[in-house]
Amino acid sequence: MTATEKKAVFGLSFIYMTRMLGLFMLMPVLALDSHSMRDSTPFLLGLAVGIYGLAQAVLQFPFGSASDRFGRKPVLVFGLLLFVAGSVLGAVTSSIWGVILARVLQGAGAVSSVLLATAGDLTDDAHRTKAMAAIGGSISIAYVLGMALGPLIY
Predict the structure, then answer these.
(1) For residue 138, with 0-12 CB atoms within 10 Å meaning exposed, 13-18 middle and 19 or more buried, which class applies?
(2) Contact at 8 Å (CB) between 93 and 48?
(3) What is the pLDDT of residues 89-131, one digit of tens each?
């Protein structure tokens, strides 16, 4: 890989990892903190975990199409801003409904397809598999860190 490709893959992997880290840090502690959230029920806790993936699945195609039309970077930035807004809301809310809304916002920042398309744009065909493997590896790192750091930070 060229230095430019390595830099792009590192940056994209870092973005992907930080998005996933937030998701994975929440999973081990959400049930532990449910007693302190207003209106919390087991169903709503499950909804809070699952709504992220649902919002992301619904919006992957529109975000991908928008990135083809408007460019990868603006769509990536917009999605990351949605994710940050959801993260801030999740940090300050004390209601399960606030957590659910926060998770919808986080999932609405559905930039996974845009990240992978950007990796494809910025890497040569000969190195694309390595780029995708690096991004996939960042998800694994985020999982391990999230499961370990979530309870510590909680």
Answers:
(1) buried
(2) no
(3) 988 888 899 989 999 998 888 788 888 888 888 888 888 889 9
3-class DSSP state of 97: helix
**70: Cα within 13 Å, side-chain hemisphere:** 13
Domain ranges of the chain: 3-153
Q: Name the CATH code of domain 3-153 (choices 3.30.450.20, 3.40.50.920, 1.20.1250.20, 3.40.710.10).
A: 1.20.1250.20
Distance CA(154)–CA(152), nearest Å, equals 5
Listed in sequence order, the residues at least 6 apart from 76 whose beta carbon sits closer than 8 Å to its beta carbon are 15, 67, 111, 114, 115, 118
Point out which residues pair with 38 in neighbouring strands.
95
For residue 94, report the phi and psi dihedrals to the nearest 5 degrees. -125, 10
Q: Which residue has 């999932």 as its token pair?
A: 107
The CA distance from 115 to 30, in Å, is 28
pTM of the predicted model as reported, rounded to 2 decimal places: 0.83
- 3 state SS of 39: coil
